[in-house]
């Protein structure tokens, strides 16, 4: 039976090989699959992540506005939460040089049409895409639940995005994600306030 031991790879060689393959996959996964677009655009990762986060927050603000428009009785309850989301939008905005060129205005106008501009934006975009009065559920309790689901979905997406975010932005995303989770809880925790 000694010949079977020489034909079978050792556990150490399997683990080393698997680690090498995983490392290669991680290195390959660091690009966005479009070749050298980062080098071509010259837009740093943090700036792209911040712009995507701002677009996500703008979509969430649109959901708040649509819900308040469809259910005016909920407007007072939603106002402080909407205000916090607006503050998040300001905090997530790109720090440093003012935006110029074609990337300056799509942040606001692209929020209605650009559903998946980044991997972190693709998950919440489905939950918060194209908000309108028609998309808001007819019953106030269901509208609050839908808004809570949008908050929760965005909080989860931001938590996932933490892994690739630079230090200060990661801390900010963690804080905003935690706040979104609290918003989701508050939107569904007080049944008497919806009437």
Explained architecture:
The chain is mainly alpha-helical. Helices cover 70% and strands 0% of the residues. It contains 9 helices and no strands. The N and C termini lie far apart (78 Å). Mean pLDDT is 71; it is low at 13-39 and 97-133.
List strands and helices in order, with pairings.
Blueprint: H1 2-7, H2 11-29, H3 37-41, H4 45-70, H5 75-92, H6 106-113, H7 119-128, H8 140-161, H9 167-189
In percent terms, what proportion of residues is strand? under 5%
Shape: elongated
Average pLDDT reading? 71
- How far is the N terminus from the C terminus? 78 Å
Features:
mainly alpha; elongated; 9 helices; 195 residues
Question: Can you summarize this structure?
Answer:
This protein is mainly α.
